Amino acid sequence: MPGPKEAKTSEINHYLYPLVMEHNQLYGGVVMPTIQCSSGALVRAALLLVACNIPAAHKTCGFISHSSTCACNKCNQQFPRLPDSNAVDYSGFVFSEWVSRTDAENRCDAKLWRMASSDAQRKRLERENGVRWSELHDLVYFNLMECTVINPMHNLYLGTAKRIIEKWRSSGLITDAHLAKMQLDADKLVLPEDYMPLETKIGRGFPFMKADK
Q1: Tell me: the pLDDT tens digits for 20-30?
Q2: Domain boundaries, the chain
Q3: Backbone phi, then psi, for 168, in 5-degree steps?
Q4: Residue among 141, 147, 144 nearest 131 (CA)
Q5: In degrees rounded to 5, what are phi and psi of residue 200?
Q6: Over residues 103-118, mean pLDDT
Q7: Which backbone phi and psi does 150 adopt, to 5 degrees?
Q8: What pTM did the predictor assign?
């Protein structure tokens, strides 16, 4: 999408609309010339996944903020607020008591939001159902609960790996001496031109790591 700034939640559907129209046409089949069939072949295509970080996934697929009381896009769990605070209490992970969302319920809630007659009514529906209308709901084959995933870069490289290193450091499994030796080994590596070198990052305890590192 064109910049320079990220599209707002209220704007995202304007960008999705033409994309969804084209995908619906391709799902039904479009005759177009190909390398193997210059006279035209029936081509079909479908959207398989939406893979991005959590804020982008929720904005694109019509789920409300991950910091809300109805934050999960997989289930209908309503999280309470912490006492004397606006912060959400995400404790109580008793998965057996959680009720999974279904595609039919999600589409119904999204249509209710779309047909709401006021912003206040839409806000109420968001709190109750955790869903907004997304143009992706017009893809009749696309299940937004099952096909919305968090990509590895944000889930692993920028989050889990960093927390693991911090845990190992705090527990003494990795010491400054280990880091210094690891840095010496890394300095000996000859990397391809398009690989990002770690420079002194390892010896300093992996601070400010970026995804490509």
Answers
A1: 999 999 999 99
A2: 12-150, 152-213
A3: -65, -35
A4: 144
A5: -100, 15
A6: 95
A7: -95, 125
A8: 0.71
